[in-house]
TrEMBL record:
InterPro entries, alphabetized: Homeodomain-like_sf (IPR009057), HTH_TetR (IPR001647), Tet_transcr_reg_TetR-rel_C_sf (IPR036271)
Gene3D superfamilies named in the record: Tetracycline Repressor, domain 2
Name of the featured protein: DNA-binding transcriptional regulator, AcrR family
Pfam family, one: TetR_N
DNA-binding region: 42-61
Transmembrane segments: none
Keywords carried by this UniProt record: DNA-binding, Transcription, Transcription regulation
Domain HTH tetR-type as annotated: residue spans: 19-79
Gene Ontology molecular function: any one: DNA binding
């Protein structure tokens, strides 16, 4: 939930193991949806990229909306893996918070970076009943809860409120990094992140 941006997101939605064909379709869809947008990429374009028939595509994804939701579920699964790896590497919560800030700052500098998939989805899919919106909500709620847990274990007084502020900082880092000079945005964003964390911890930050 805390972790990185990647276009290699072909994990199964929770509770369902994808068939090799479903995985192949997600493999084809992921870079297209990330690079060009959820609305701009048609089902026909994904079908052509995956090299499957329409019948096969719709057997695994009855609608394009279902494909978009699966795409975000896959991205969420990858971020959850990244969270586990970051926390395992940094068991101290203060160190973990700083490592998270550094990881976020590094993302806009990565090759092929085009912003946060979840922020893009929220922008492109204003309809709250779209199945992908539930994935966006779970991502943001889960991210905030995970950061609040780190803050609480580090000794922050109002961990939930600080986590919500850090979510705003996160969004700013990832969105501004997509629109401006990545290196300068990364440095500025990390400085804000560290200031918020230090303020919450009474100056105790790495």
């Amino acid at each position: 939930m805390l972790g990185g941006v990647t276009t290699d997101v072909t994990e199964a939605p929770p509770g369902r193991a994808p068939s090799s064909v479903a995985r192949r379709i997600l493999d084809a869809a992921t870079p297209l949806l990330y690079a060009h947008g959820l609305r701009a990429v048609s089902a026909d374009r994904v079908i052509a990229a995956a090299g499957v028939s329409k019948v096969t595509f719709y057997r695994h994804f009855p609608t394009k909306d279902a494909l978009v939701a699966a795409y975000l579920e896959s991205w969420l699964a990858r971020e959850q893996e990244a969270t586990a790896a970051l926390l395992a590497e940094h068991p101290d919560p203060v160190e973990a918070l700083d490592a998270l800030g550094r990881a976020l700052a590094d993302q806009p500098c990565a090759p092929g970076y085009r912003g946060c998939a979840f922020v893009h989805a929220a922008s492109e899919l204003p309809d709250e009943v779209h199945p992908a919106r539930a994935v966006v909500t779970r991502h943001r709620d889960g991210w905030t809860a995970a950061v609040a847990d780190l803050l609480g274990r580090a000794g922050a007084g109002d961990a939930d409120d600080v986590a919500r502020r850090l979510l705003v900082v996160r969004d700013g880092m990832l969105v501004a990094g997509d629109a401006a000079a990545a290196a300068g945005t990364a440095a500025a964003g990390l400085a804000v992140w560290r200031a918020v964390v230090a303020g919450a911890l009474g100056g105790r930050a790495t």
